[in-house]
Each structure stands twice: as structure tokens, then as C-alpha cells.
Amino acid sequence: MKQRNPERKTAPTLEDVARVAGISPMTVSRALNSPEQVRPATVAKVKSAIVATGYIPNAQAGSLASNRSRLIAVVVPQINNNMFVDTIQSLNDSLSARGYHMLLCVTGYETETEAETVATLLSRRPDGIVLTGIHHSAQLKKVLLQANVPVVEIWDMTPTPIDMLVGFSHEKIGARVAEYLAERGYKKPGLIWTDDRRALQRKQGLQDALMTLDIKPIADVTVQLPALMARGREACTQLLDHHPDVDVLVCSSDTLAQGALMAAQSRGIHIPQQLAVIGFGDLDFAAANFPSISTVRIDRQRMGELAAEQLMKRLHNQMVENPIIDMGFTMLPRDSG
């Protein structure tokens, strides 16, 4: 019986890519490992040659040679929360343009889970870490300090970040919304709110400022996470059943505000003549909704870009002029009140 001995094909090499691209293997290596140091036209030529040859870069070998993994670990509490999506996408796009890849992890709102997740991530040797929020366990802070990797915290504000920070003050947003209610003459606000830490910070800022303005909320409904439109509608129905005299609903997110608007309109309530509704976040539907939703805008895309810029400066040994960046916010009056 004749023995079959098919010729085994060898995997394409970096030298094959160099030959197809018409450049040196060293230039190919630089284009793969440090694309920001190579002309864009050359990087494009290398990428085209990789597609043509079917070459698979050895990321591990590249990281050993440069002591860089080109991975940035990003930790968020939820991915089914539209509030974080734009920031994550912008961060990913900014990192990708610089030759880095994002490793995304979801931890919920428990500090213990976050600490365990970050410890696992560090075993992958990421070049940097982005954390959502500023409230972390002592164990997590200790692990990060020992790891000696650049860290950017987002979506919050503190004068004492772990390393760098890009965020805003939730308390100040709450206070500004209270001022807005007073400016519009609302006297009987009702609150529809989730109980996550950042939302509660806004709520505390709102309540403290309302007390100073001698305005007392007449109703407060807590909504379970995630902040779904249906839950906003249910909360509004519950609130109006017991407090029909409420003149404005302040919601901890635009999604809850949209649900509240639907519930109010289903009862024939005129917006904003009989009831105003205010959200938070300026999500993509807020301006297009009917009626459009009055809300607080956060530049979520810019937050992702700035976080990436902070990391890149630190990774390339450049001076970070301002390690704490306050994004601020904008109050947006619209048709809902």
C-alpha cells in the first residue's frame, strides 16, 4: 500500500511580509509593534502585505521584545447601560489608532468583584488600565500601586485619583438641576432614581441644593438596575397614583425619563404644562424624542479620547500636564420642561 506523505505547508513569516511589501523585516516589525513611529503609508503597505500573505503576527514575541503587550484593560460596571457605550467606543477607537487593543471587562457595582477582575487582568500584563469611578477597595489600590502601570479613572471626580482622572462632579450636576427647577418655578418635584453610587451622588447634590432653595421633593421612587425604559414607566405610574400633584419628575437617566414621559402621556397629561420631565446623560434619543427631553449633557466621546491621550502620554514618557481633567457638563433645556 502506497503511503501518503503530503507536503506540509509552512506558515508565512515576517520576512514573507517584508518581501511582499518591498521593505525590510525591521520596518515591518516597527510597523507592527510601534505604528506611531512609522509613516501611515508604510503601515498601510504592511497591513496589505499581511492580508496577502496570511501572516499572523506573534503578539507575545513582540511584547517580550518591547516589554509591551499593547493591551489596555478597561473595566466598566455594565455594558447594557447606554451611558457607558459611547465612551467605550471612543476609547477603543482612540487606542486602535495608536496600535493598542482594548480588553473589556464587566464587573457590576461590587468593589470586591472589581478587585478580583483587575488582579486577573494584571496577569495579562496590560500596558495600562481604565477604571470606571473612583470608589475602589483598598486591596485593588494596593495591587495597582504594586503593578506600577498607568491608570485612568473616568466618570467621576476627586482631587486624589490613583493616578490620572477624566471625569466630572455628580454632586455639582445635582446642584445645577436643583437650580434649574427653581429657575423654572417648579415646587413639587418627584424623583425616579436608581441606587448605584454615581446616581446617588447626583441625588445627594440635588437634595442638598433643593433644601437650600426651600424646595422639598414630595415623592421618591427607587428603580432597580439596569435603568430600563419600562422601569421608568412603571415608576412614573406608581408615583402619579400616589402623588398626582407632582409638577416635575427628575430622573437619574434619560432612559427612565423617556419611560416616564410615555406613562404620563398615556394618562393624557400635557408635557410640560402639567408635568415636566428631566433626565440625565443626553443619550442619542433625547433630542429626537417627542417631546425632546430636557437633560444634562456629558461629552462621553471626548471622555474616551482624553483617557486614551492620558495613557499614551504616560506610556511614551511624556509629561502629563494635567492628570485631573474635569469634563464639566451642560444643562440642556428642551420641550419636556
TrEMBL record:
It holds the Pfam family LacI. InterPro entries: HTH_LacI, Lambda_DNA-bd_dom_sf, Peripla_BP/Lac1_sug-bd_dom, Peripla_BP_I. It comes from the Bacteria. PROSITE patterns: HTH_LACI_2. Residues 12-66 form the HTH lacI-type domain. Coiled coil: none annotated. CDD domains: HTH_LacI, PBP1_GntR. Keywords: DNA-binding, Transcription, Transcription regulation. GO terms for molecular function: DNA-binding transcription factor activity; transcription cis-regulatory region binding. This is GntR family transcriptional regulator.
